[in-house]
Amino acid sequence: MNSGIPIEITGLSKHFGSVTAVEDLSFTVQPGRVTGFLGPNGAGKTTTLRVLLGLVKASSGTATFGGTPYHALKRPLETVGAALDASFHPGRTARNHLRVTATAAGIAASRVPVVLEQVGLTEFADRRVGGYSLGMRQRLALAFTLLGDPSVFVLDEPINGLDPEGIKWIRLFLQRLAQDGRTVLVSSHLLSEVQQSVDDVVIISRGRLAKTGTLSSLELESAPRTIADSPDRPRLAAALAQAGLEYTEGRNGFIVAEPDPGLVGHAAFVGGVELKSLHRLKSGLEESFLALVNGEVDHVEIAEPGPPEASGAPEASAAPDEAADAAAPTDAAAPTDAAEPAPPDDRESPPADGAKE
Ligand SMILES: Nc1ncnc2c1ncn2[C@@H]1O[C@H](COP(=O)(O)OP(=O)(O)OP(=O)(O)O)[C@@H](O)[C@H]1O
Q1: Do residues 7 and 55 lie in contact, with contact meaning Cβ atoms separated by under 8 Å?
Q2: What pLDDT, on a 0 to 100 scale, did the predictor assign at position 251?
Q3: Locations of Basic and acidic residues compositional bias (predicted)?
């Protein structure tokens, strides 16, 4: 228990008919840390988590817990606590829900009062769940994840809709899990929602990895920068290099590590390059996040304590176009997945399902 099991996603792709939900995704989630799995709606977070939990099959690639896929875990609920789309029968109590799941999973009934206490629901344990607030339901979903006292937690949008007090509570809850040496992966579509709770971030956009690293590496990137574009990008790249300005190439131009657009414009002028756009990128974590997920920045991976990504010759211009081509699939294509084969059933259900009627 708490032996430090990493989550390992390697070359993972998932297609629903013609819709690409996840494309060649690779990242590792380390034990002892809270990792935010971030991306806008439709980025592919839930699909990745569903593959990880054996609820849908990958088109290619692997998603494992220290090398073992979910369906091959000997005691899944005692390895992984997952909260994904938890729904509860309104007429039953929290205690009853938890008892049923514990019995089905061969977990001692004595764990039920323990987990109720851990999530602060003891005094409401015998009330019908139908009368619970959203925050109480979120806590109940977390109680399910704790039943087997697992080493790994996979939580889909656990902070969504919580009030400030609930957010503070869950922040401490997650940090305590990580301090115990457990692996904690928390998805969210808002960086601001989780930024006080996470140590590391994995950011995806349109099913592809946009960034992995520590939250502090993202903070490093959030210094004010300038974005500049030209009809002749190679010449602009040369002019920037000539002026000693560091840059990365994004879909909308070069992101230059210089807060003053005037200096970037001057470098272009000296290089005799026409500009078609020149503006300052706002500073701040949220802006960095939005720039990443909106495709202004291409895939960057920062090693701790990584310096800001920049410099050197721009990458081949095909990269931004590829990113653009991987336009977010739409929900309109959802029916193609209705025929998604059910996952193999020769295993215990993940706890989230255990919470369902
Ligand atoms: N069962 C399905 N059939 C068809 N398309 C699907 C299916 N599930 C997800 N998709 C598509 O895959 C893409 C990724 O969806 P996913 O739910 O994984 O994203 P997400 O990042 O979790 O978004 P959200 O925060 O809105 O839940 C979306 O375009 C979605 O419409």
Answers
A1: no
A2: 76
A3: 344-357
Q: What is the pLDDT of residues 214-264, one digit of tens each?
A: 988 777 666 778 889 999 999 999 999 999 999 988 778 898 988 899 999
- Phi–psi pair at 212, nearest 5 degrees: -130, 150
**Ligand 1 in contact with 45 (CB < 6 A)?**
yes
Choose which residue among 20, 25, 47, 156 to substitute to test ligand 1 binding: the one with the highest number of ligand atoms within 8 A of its C-beta.
47
Phi, psi of 274 (to 5 degrees): -75, 140
Nearest CA to ligand 1 atom 31: 331
Contact yes or no for 207/56 (Cβ under 8 A):
no
Q: What angle do CA 167, 173, 174 make, to 5 degrees?
A: 90
Model confidence band, residue 134 (pLDDT cutoffs 50, 70, 90): confident
* Window from 2-6, 244-248, 287-291 with minimum mean pLDDT: 287-291
- Which structure tokens are listed for 121? 């629901």
Q: Whose structure tokens read 């789309």?
A: 85
Q: Is there an atom of ligand 1 within 6 Å of 199 CB? A: no
The interface pTM score, or ipTM, of the predicted complex is 0.95
Both structure tokens of 266? 């001057």
pTM (global) more than 0.90: no
What type of residue sits at position 234? P
Shortest-distance Cα residue to atom 7 of ligand 1 = 334
Contact 299, 211 (CB under 8 A): yes
Ligand 1 centroid distance, CA of 328 (Å): 10
Q: Which of 15, 46, 53 to mutate to test the pocket of ligand 1 (most atoms within 8 A of CB)?
A: 46
Q: How many residues does the chain have?
A: 357
Cα–Cα distance measured from residue 320 to residue 299, given in angstroms and rounded to the nearest whole number: 10
The domain in which residue 153 lies consists of 7-207+342-354
One domain for residues 184 and 311? no
**Beta-sheet strand order (sheet of 247-250):** 247-250, 253-256, 225-229, 277-281
CB of 336 closer than 6 angstroms to any ligand 1 atom: yes
State whether 155 and 248 are in the same domain: no
254 is a domain residue: yes
- Both 159 and 307 in one domain: the answer is no
